[in-house]
Each structure stands twice: as structure tokens, then as C-alpha cells.
From TrEMBL, chain A:
High-level lineage: Eukaryota, Viridiplantae, Chlorophyta, core chlorophytes, Trebouxiophyceae
GO biological processes: translation
Keyword Ribonucleoprotein: yes
Record's subcellular location: Mitochondrion
Biased composition range(s): Basic and acidic residues: 242-251
Pfam families: Ribosomal_L3 (PF00297)
Keyword Phosphoprotein tagged: no
HAMAP family associated with the record: Ribosomal_uL3_B
Family named by the database record: Belongs to the universal ribosomal protein uL3 family.
This protein's name: Large ribosomal subunit protein uL3m
From TrEMBL, chain B:
The keyword Zinc is annotated on this UniProt entry: no
SUPFAM superfamilies named among the record's database cross-references: Translation proteins SH3-like domain (SSF50104)
Any single GO CC term annotated in Swiss-Prot or TrEMBL for this entry: ribonucleoprotein complex
Lineage: Eukaryota, Viridiplantae, Chlorophyta, core chlorophytes, Trebouxiophyceae
Protein name: 50S ribosomal protein L19, chloroplastic
GO MF term set: structural constituent of ribosome
Region called Disordered, residue ranges: 41-71
Keywords: Ribonucleoprotein, Ribosomal protein
Alphabetical GO biological process terms: translation
Homology family: Belongs to the bacterial ribosomal protein bL19 family.
Gene3D superfamilies: 2.30.30.790
Residues passing through the membrane, by range: none
Name of a matching Pfam family: Ribosomal_L19
Amino acid sequence: MSASTRRSGVLAVKVGMTQEWDNWGARLPISILWVDGCKVVQAKTDDREGYTALQVGIGAKREKQVAGTQRGHFAKAGVPILRKLAEFRVTPDAVLPPGTELRANLFVPGQYVDVCGTSIGKGFAGVMKRWGFKGQPASHGASLAHRVPGSTGGNQDPGKVWKGKKLPGRLGGVRKTVQNCLVYKVDAARNLIYVVGQVPGHKGNFVRVADAVKKAFEQQPMRPLVPPAVGQGSGVATLDPNGRDPYDFQD
Amino acid sequence: MLQRLRHVACAVRPAVVAEMLAARQCQAAWAVQGLRGLQTSTPAPAPAETSTLQAEAQRLARPKGRPSMPWTPTQELLKRKTYTKRMGHMLEVLERERVAQIMKERKIPSFGPGAVLELKLSVPENKRRTTVFKGMCIAMSNRASRTTFTLRNFIGPGALERTFPLFSPHIQDIKVLEERPVRRAKLYYLRKRVPREYRVA
């Protein structure tokens, strides 16, 4: 694995949130992600498709739930029928053959990942929730306006409301990425990834987990290019490898 | 029942009666054998505690009717519930396991509201020096690894209430001094009472 390599990510299912105390005694909010049988379905190459990517899938579906074309697509790769498919752009040296299983041990405790998922839908949200507007006073004579947007622009100049004006509308239910989540723990036997912080979506939703794009090769620990053997790679991260105590307040 | 049949069968031909009796007896015999079969079947092996490869292989090799571990890949399940249900169950199992692990590493006594405790705490902000905090437990919130309890005491100028996570690594020792009788899960009424009722010396 070199500095220019871009590995594939995995698809996972959000299990929920819990907490852990790290080796310094600080409390960490943890999101648990479960890699439910992630398999490579197709390898896209530069000469055929014009770009290099790996199509991976997770979950399961019954035969009667898919059309013949999809059944053939999975049969060609030699994988069972999968529920969710996604592509991960990779560099040519990180291409894996169809049928390869990607497990949680692809990620190393102590590395950073980007987790991408569909955020929880909030419906038609008002301007205070959607854009963080401050609203109007609750009393002191404010008439019929407590949570409304207020003014939407100037007068005759410009004589219109600018496009993209922040107004109420649908909030949530869209694809969101949380970047630079620290992988706290990896349970290789059970295919679980414990990640510090929040992850978009409800429990039971699919998420994409990939190496952080905003972390340089030197800032991340050594990660495997070829998926390691089943059962290997479990571990817990010890935070702050320099040994700096987070409770050591310097005056 | 066999007696009644014999009585009725007196009027019918003996060969037919014999056949019917034999059939009934066979049925009875099968029923008894079935019961015996249930009694003598060996119970299924208990699920392994560790998450090693061998344990996983054992779990997967179980006969199909048995419930499987929540992290069994969906591709290996015959009957599937929705992801939301399965993840809720998995989270419960993982949290319970974590609590069991912590309880094995540390000795934490069991107590509830009404218990008077003495805690030895390490204060990380003060170079991890050990302090003592005494108080009466007025509330206990049971949430697996996030379980917290609130202690109340009357010290010096005023009352002092402090909430601690039960499994926090900063709590070095919990000693239960006494158990005061209470009839509530949350003793917030003590906030309106005289300090004598909840003060710990």
C-alpha cells in the first residue's frame, strides 16, 4: 500500500450508538457498524467502463424478489443475491476480483474513515430548524410572528427574492457524509466496526465506510491492501499515540 | 378407552376387533415412544462465550431450527426479521456483554436508591488525585454501560448532588455503608425535606 493507493470501502449497516471509556478515562460516543457479508460483485476497469472502481454489495434478497437480469449479474460474480450495491472508486493496484469478501478487518483501529449514509428525514422543516434562524420574540408585542423567516430581501432594488433564499422546506432524508471518524475498535470475528461519533441515518440503515479522503497517507496507520484472513485484525485503538494525557491542562 | 372398545367389540367379529385393538395399541405405543424420544434427546450445546473462529463455526453448524447469533450474516439466515429489529437486538446483546465484561474486571456492589455510599474517586483534572465522596443514592438510571446513580449529601453551607456513571474508570471503589428503607425508585422528594433525612456523616 503506497501513498497514491486508494482502497475500496465497505458497505455496512448502522447498529446503533453506545459509549466507551478510552485508556485515558475520557468518554467516547461510539457508533457501531456491522458489515453484513460485503462482497465484491464487479470490478470496473479503465478499458471497459472508462474508470476503475469496485462494485460491492451487502445483505441478502430472495430469488423471487429480483429480476432475471439481476440474478445473472450476481451469478456472474459467483455471489448470492445482495440487497444493496454501491461503487467505490479505486486505483488499479487496489482492484479485487469479483467474489472477494470484504470484512470489518479491512479497517485498522486508530485510522480515520468517512461514513456516508442517508440522514434521518425531518419532513417539511421550519426555518429555525432547517437554517438555524433565531426567530422573533415570544412576547413584547410580537404579532403572529415567532418562528417565521421574517424579511426576504430589499425593496425595489433588487425587486425580487434571490434564488436559494433560505426558506422552509424538506430537511433530511438525503445523502450525508461524516468525515474523519476515528475507528475505535474492530471486531473481526463478528464483522463490527466501532467508530467514534455520530453516523448519518437510523438504526438498520446502510452506510458507506471508506478511508478518510482528508487524511494524508502519513497521518493514517498502515492498512492492508489485500483483505486479511477471516478472524484476523481485531483490536482496540489506544488514542493519542504520542501519549499526551487529555486531562493534562497546561496553564 | 381400550376397555370400552372391547365392550363394544363383543358384537363385532373377533378378527376386526383384534385389528382395531392392535391399531389403537400401536398408536398408544407410538405416543409413549414420542414422549420418551423428547425426554431422552440431548440438549443443544450452550452458545460459546468467546467470539473465536471455532465458536462461529459451531454456531453456524447448528441445526436450522435454533436461533442464531445476531451478527450472523443475512445470507446464512433462513428466516429474517427487519434490519431495525435485528440491530436493536444486536445492540442489546453487545451492551449486555460489555457490562458483563466490566463486571468481571471490576468489583461493583449492587445497590439501589436508599443506599448510603462512600466513593473513592480519581479526579483526572487534578492530576488524578484520589478524593472521597459520600452520599445517599437518590436515583438510579439503568442503561447497561451508561448506568448512572445520583448521590445527595448535606455538606457545610449547603446540599450537594452529584451524578456518576456506574462503570466510569474514575470510580476506584464503591462501599455501601448502609441501606435506608425507601418506597420509591427516585427520591427527589428529599430535596424539599430537612437535610437530616439524607445527610451522611
